[in-house]
Input
Amino acid sequence: MGLDALRKLAALVSTAGLALLWAMPATTADQPSKERVEARSATLLAVGVISGENMSIHLSRVADNAPVRDVVLNVLLRGTVHQAVAEPDGSYTVRSPDLTLPGAAAMEFQVIHGQERETLKADLVVADRQSKPEQKNSARQLWWWALNFAVCIGFLMLLSRRRKAANARKAASED
Output
């Protein structure tokens, strides 16, 4: 195997390895964590999914799980009322830096539909992200190291075969 063939093999292995690394799904260390809060009354269920400063709220009826639309939805969090914005998919969105503050907080979903008013209460617990140690060994990084070791071992095996072949030719020519 010549030097050109060795270069082609190394390029092929590197390209395939990089393609595998990019195709791998991201680990939870690569994604921001999402908290979930749920509040229920006798007739309504509110589920909020928090990602950073945004909370997406899905409001539905308990009886048939049908989405509730066309209501005024306010969220009381840490003493501040935040008006939710209706989204085209039927959910509601609230944006507030209060959603990123670590610790527990009482939360109320205030639903107003015409003359009817209903309050759903929940407790929000936001994890303290800064107290968590950084995860240095993500799956991508481990795959990267495994690929590097495989390429190095392959290169050393090819080099060893070339030396053995050269020594065998040299010994054959001396005889």
